[in-house]
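Notes, p. 3: input format for complexes.
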Amino acid sequence: MSAVVELKNIEKRFGDVNALEGINITINKNEWVSIMGPSGSGKTTLLNILSLMDNPTDGEYLFNGEDVSGFDETKQLLFRREKIGLIFQQFHLIPYLTALENVMLAQYYHSATDEEDARAALAKVGLSHRLTHRPSQLSGGEQQRLCIARALINDPEVLLADEPTGNLDEKNERVIFELFFKLKAEGKTIISITHNRELGALGDRVVLLHHGRQISHHHHSHHKHHHGKTEGDIQ
Ligand SMILES: Nc1ncnc2c1ncn2[C@@H]1O[C@H](COP(=O)(O)OP(=O)(O)OP(=O)(O)O)[C@@H](O)[C@H]1O
Ligand SMILES: [Mg+2]
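Output follows (235 residues plus magnesium ion):
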């Protein structure tokens, strides 16, 4: 197994707040890691560092063996476009654009737009019948799936998701996590933040944060996943 993400002694301070302290995490290709912990424990801070939206105060970040912690802004931007698919808790959809246009806009920032690819990404998340709807005309679950389609459009190696089911009811939660199972089966590496213990347990392991410190690594390699039906916990 090869490591995609290696964090070595990552520290993040905001003034006198130690948001992250001594974080050491290695994530292998095709792993699905859940990041859990109470509010304020540093989860979003960690995700921001992983996506190069923010720089650590100290420590090293290797991506596919390359030290990305010293990247300048241009390289950071390219890294985010090419390597990472970001799924935010707040959707950041453009209200006056249709579902198809929202996905194509993300493509545009990457390279050339290709309507067929955008349609295919929307089909993958089950939104083929909603191409011309604007975000306000979509349900919460549909908006979140649109965000996932947008994150997938540039075929990123790693998907980073901050509370991807935070705003959703149980049924939509299940749809999103089944989608994640599918993406994992296709070879993606997934790092997802969740408050929900049952959902956290669906990944391969949990990284638990507490006051910016990593308190444990739980492996779940003992159980097999069958498209969302894991230990009956989301039924
Ligand atoms: N830009 C900032 N400036 C100052 N302090 C910050 C900043 N961003 C985060 N913090 C602090 O760092 C700590 C970790 O914040 P973070 O947003 O990572 O928590 P979280 O685990 O994502 O919480 P939640 O579950 O509520 O989203 C908090 O104490 C927060 O107040
Ligand atoms: Mg957060």
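The longest helix spans residues 170-185.
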